[in-house]
Amino acid sequence: MRVRVFLLSFLAVAVLAANGYGATDNWERNRKGELFNVRLYHEETKSYFELRRHSGSWLKAYRAARAGVFKGTRGRLAMLKTKEANDFVVQNFRPPDGTWLGMRYFCKKRKFVWIDGTSLKKSDYHNFGARWFDPNAYPPCRGNRREYGAIEFREYLGEIRWWGMSPTHAQGAYLVEYPTGER
Fold first, then answer.
1. Alpha-carbon distance 85 to 79, whole Å?
2. Which of 55, 95, 157, 172 could disulfide-link to 99, CB 3.0 to 4.6 Å?
3. Phi/psi at 117 (nearest 5 deg)?
4. CATH number of 2-178
5. Where are the domains of the chain?
6. What is the pLDDT of residues 60-108, one digit of tens each?
Protein backbone atom coordinates (compact mmCIF):
# COMPACT_ATOMS: atom_id res chain seq x y z
CA MET A 1 0.00 0.00 0.00
CA ARG A 2 2.81 2.45 0.87
CA VAL A 3 4.54 1.77 -2.44
CA ARG A 4 1.29 2.44 -4.29
CA VAL A 5 0.75 5.76 -2.47
CA PHE A 6 4.37 6.75 -3.13
CA LEU A 7 4.06 5.94 -6.84
CA LEU A 8 0.82 7.90 -7.16
CA SER A 9 2.39 10.84 -5.32
CA PHE A 10 5.50 10.66 -7.52
CA LEU A 11 3.37 10.61 -10.68
CA ALA A 12 1.31 13.59 -9.48
CA VAL A 13 4.45 15.66 -8.88
CA ALA A 14 5.87 14.61 -12.25
CA VAL A 15 2.68 15.70 -14.03
CA LEU A 16 2.63 19.03 -12.16
CA ALA A 17 6.30 19.71 -12.93
CA ALA A 18 5.90 18.70 -16.60
CA ASN A 19 3.09 21.20 -16.96
CA GLY A 20 5.13 24.05 -15.48
CA TYR A 21 3.39 24.12 -12.11
CA GLY A 22 6.61 24.44 -10.13
CA ALA A 23 6.16 21.41 -7.89
CA THR A 24 8.72 21.20 -5.12
CA ASP A 25 10.32 18.07 -3.72
CA ASN A 26 8.42 18.26 -0.43
CA TRP A 27 4.83 18.82 -1.63
CA GLU A 28 2.04 17.32 0.42
CA ARG A 29 -1.74 16.85 0.26
CA ASN A 30 -3.19 15.90 3.63
CA ARG A 31 -6.37 13.98 4.51
CA LYS A 32 -8.51 17.12 4.27
CA GLY A 33 -7.31 17.69 0.72
CA GLU A 34 -5.16 20.71 1.61
CA LEU A 35 -2.26 21.03 -0.85
CA PHE A 36 1.03 22.39 0.52
CA ASN A 37 4.38 23.29 -1.05
CA VAL A 38 3.35 23.25 -4.73
CA ARG A 39 3.28 26.35 -6.90
CA LEU A 40 0.32 26.41 -9.28
CA TYR A 41 -0.02 28.96 -12.08
CA HIS A 42 -3.20 31.01 -12.51
CA GLU A 43 -3.56 32.41 -16.02
CA GLU A 44 -5.82 35.39 -15.22
CA THR A 45 -3.51 36.87 -12.55
CA LYS A 46 -0.34 35.65 -14.29
CA SER A 47 0.84 34.51 -10.87
CA TYR A 48 1.94 31.32 -9.17
CA PHE A 49 0.31 30.52 -5.83
CA GLU A 50 1.72 28.36 -3.05
CA LEU A 51 0.21 27.29 0.28
CA ARG A 52 2.85 27.09 3.02
CA ARG A 53 2.70 25.80 6.59
CA HIS A 54 3.26 28.41 9.27
CA SER A 55 2.87 28.88 12.96
CA GLY A 56 2.83 32.56 13.66
CA SER A 57 1.40 36.03 13.29
CA TRP A 58 0.33 37.83 10.13
CA LEU A 59 3.53 39.91 10.20
CA LYS A 60 5.72 36.79 10.35
CA ALA A 61 3.77 35.31 7.41
CA TYR A 62 4.15 38.59 5.50
CA ARG A 63 7.92 38.53 6.03
CA ALA A 64 8.21 34.83 5.14
CA ALA A 65 6.25 35.37 1.91
CA ARG A 66 8.49 38.34 0.98
CA ALA A 67 11.60 36.22 1.61
CA GLY A 68 10.55 33.72 -1.07
CA VAL A 69 11.67 34.11 -4.69
CA PHE A 70 10.41 32.09 -7.65
CA LYS A 71 11.45 32.67 -11.28
CA GLY A 72 13.20 35.85 -10.17
CA THR A 73 10.03 37.26 -8.59
CA ARG A 74 9.70 38.06 -4.89
CA GLY A 75 6.72 36.47 -3.16
CA ARG A 76 3.96 38.28 -1.29
CA LEU A 77 0.91 37.30 0.69
CA ALA A 78 -1.75 36.53 -1.90
CA MET A 79 -4.17 39.15 -3.18
CA LEU A 80 -7.31 37.46 -4.47
CA LYS A 81 -9.00 40.39 -6.19
CA THR A 82 -11.36 38.36 -8.42
CA LYS A 83 -13.81 35.52 -7.88
CA GLU A 84 -11.85 33.45 -10.42
CA ALA A 85 -8.59 33.83 -8.48
CA ASN A 86 -10.31 33.03 -5.18
CA ASP A 87 -12.08 29.98 -6.67
CA PHE A 88 -8.79 28.77 -8.20
CA VAL A 89 -7.07 28.86 -4.80
CA VAL A 90 -9.98 27.29 -2.89
CA GLN A 91 -10.49 24.48 -5.42
CA ASN A 92 -6.81 23.62 -5.87
CA PHE A 93 -5.33 24.20 -2.42
CA ARG A 94 -8.31 23.81 -0.02
CA PRO A 95 -6.66 26.29 2.40
CA PRO A 96 -7.18 25.35 6.06
CA ASP A 97 -8.75 27.61 8.68
CA GLY A 98 -6.26 30.25 9.67
CA THR A 99 -4.49 30.77 6.33
CA TRP A 100 -3.24 34.35 6.16
CA LEU A 101 -3.97 36.47 3.06
CA GLY A 102 -2.47 39.77 1.86
CA MET A 103 -5.16 42.06 3.23
CA ARG A 104 -5.60 44.08 6.42
CA TYR A 105 -8.37 46.14 7.93
CA PHE A 106 -7.17 49.46 9.34
CA CYS A 107 -9.30 50.14 12.39
CA LYS A 108 -9.16 53.94 12.63
CA LYS A 109 -9.60 54.49 8.89
CA ARG A 110 -12.24 51.71 8.66
CA LYS A 111 -10.68 50.44 5.42
CA PHE A 112 -9.74 47.06 4.00
CA VAL A 113 -6.38 47.43 2.23
CA TRP A 114 -4.45 44.93 0.08
CA ILE A 115 -0.70 44.73 0.65
CA ASP A 116 -0.08 46.62 -2.60
CA GLY A 117 -1.82 49.62 -0.99
CA THR A 118 -5.11 49.45 -2.91
CA SER A 119 -8.30 49.78 -0.87
CA LEU A 120 -11.15 47.32 -1.18
CA LYS A 121 -14.33 49.12 -2.23
CA LYS A 122 -17.83 47.79 -1.60
CA SER A 123 -18.22 47.20 -5.33
CA ASP A 124 -15.00 45.10 -5.51
CA TYR A 125 -15.02 41.32 -5.29
CA HIS A 126 -14.77 39.96 -1.75
CA ASN A 127 -15.43 36.63 -0.11
CA PHE A 128 -16.21 37.61 3.47
CA GLY A 129 -18.42 35.50 5.68
CA ALA A 130 -21.64 37.07 7.02
CA ARG A 131 -21.31 40.66 8.26
CA TRP A 132 -17.50 40.74 7.96
CA PHE A 133 -17.64 43.45 5.33
CA ASP A 134 -19.38 45.76 7.80
CA PRO A 135 -16.52 47.92 9.16
CA ASN A 136 -18.60 48.86 12.21
CA ALA A 137 -18.82 45.23 13.31
CA TYR A 138 -15.18 44.29 12.79
CA PRO A 139 -14.31 42.29 15.95
CA PRO A 140 -10.47 42.50 15.88
CA CYS A 141 -10.83 46.27 16.33
CA ARG A 142 -13.56 46.29 18.95
CA GLY A 143 -12.53 47.15 22.51
CA ASN A 144 -8.80 47.37 21.91
CA ARG A 145 -6.23 49.69 20.41
CA ARG A 146 -5.03 47.64 17.46
CA GLU A 147 -3.86 49.48 14.39
CA TYR A 148 -5.23 46.76 12.12
CA GLY A 149 -6.84 43.35 11.87
CA ALA A 150 -5.65 40.74 9.36
CA ILE A 151 -7.63 38.64 6.89
CA GLU A 152 -7.54 34.86 6.78
CA PHE A 153 -9.41 31.94 5.25
CA ARG A 154 -11.98 30.34 7.58
CA GLU A 155 -14.66 27.75 6.94
CA TYR A 156 -18.08 29.34 7.42
CA LEU A 157 -21.31 27.38 6.90
CA GLY A 158 -19.47 24.76 4.84
CA GLU A 159 -17.69 27.26 2.58
CA ILE A 160 -14.15 28.60 2.72
CA ARG A 161 -14.54 32.36 3.22
CA TRP A 162 -12.47 35.38 4.26
CA TRP A 163 -12.51 36.25 7.93
CA GLY A 164 -10.99 38.86 10.19
CA MET A 165 -8.58 37.97 12.98
CA SER A 166 -6.17 39.60 15.37
CA PRO A 167 -2.87 39.91 13.46
CA THR A 168 -0.92 38.56 16.44
CA HIS A 169 -2.91 35.32 16.54
CA ALA A 170 -0.73 32.33 15.55
CA GLN A 171 -2.14 30.70 12.41
CA GLY A 172 -1.24 27.45 10.66
CA ALA A 173 -0.64 28.53 7.05
CA TYR A 174 -0.20 31.40 4.63
CA LEU A 175 -0.82 31.77 0.91
CA VAL A 176 2.06 33.12 -1.21
CA GLU A 177 1.63 34.73 -4.61
CA TYR A 178 4.53 35.09 -7.06
CA PRO A 179 3.32 37.60 -9.73
CA THR A 180 5.76 36.46 -12.44
CA GLY A 181 3.71 37.83 -15.36
CA GLU A 182 4.27 34.62 -17.31
CA ARG A 183 4.40 30.85 -16.98
1. 9
2. 95
3. 95, -5
4. 3.10.100.10
5. 2-178
6. 999 999 999 999 999 999 999 999 999 999 999 999 888 999 999 898 8
